[in-house]
């Protein structure tokens, strides 16, 4: 069952995202973070990973090269309803997803991320325009805001353990706020 039943995507946008995911080079950002995610899983002796916005599960592919890693993998993506609802996990990864969220649903998504993050979250956010465009002509990055815009929204729900600039944006490692 969805831990937070508030909507996280409109039906029209779900269809636009499903169309974009048909491209083999869409949703590949998680491939570059396999080693870093592995490190976090091992540091925490994490037994579960929720891949929020999993797309075609490229993070799972990136982690499969590490034979020493045994973790329950829970993909979630509203463009792939067959994955089912988001599931709580020791580590929640949300890689190159938040900038794609419809602005009216961002708070719902952030609240859902908080609800499923048991120990830590690993979130990457691109802050500028995407190369890709939606079928309706909009840039695929619906939210193009600097880290100074994102951080207060994240800090309402999480404690920031680490913050690092990345090409085109930033990443954070977070823990859920207890209050």
Task: Report on this structure.
This protein is α/β, with parallel strands linked by helices. The protein starts with 10 loop residues before the first helix and ends with a strand. Helix content is about 25%, strand content about 25%. Helix 3 (about 60-65) links the parallel strand 1 and strand 2 (about 70-75). Strands 2-1-3-4-6-5 form a 6-stranded mixed beta sheet, with helices on both faces.
Keywords:
5 helices, about 180 residues, globular, six-stranded mixed sheet, about 25% helix, alpha/beta
Q: Record the strand order, biggest sheet.
A: 2-1-3-4-6-5
Helix content: 25-40%
Task: Return the string of H and E elements.
Answer: HHEHEEHEHEE
Total number of beta strands: 6
Distance between the termini: 24 Å
Rg measurement, Å:
15 Å
The stretches of 5 or more residues where confidence is low (pLDDT under 50) are none
Mean pLDDT: 93
* Relative strand content: 15-25%
Q: Could you say which overall geometry the principal axes of the C-alpha atoms support?
A: globular
Provide the structure class.
alpha/beta
Major beta sheet, specifics? 6 strands, mixed
**Tally of contiguous helical segments:** 5
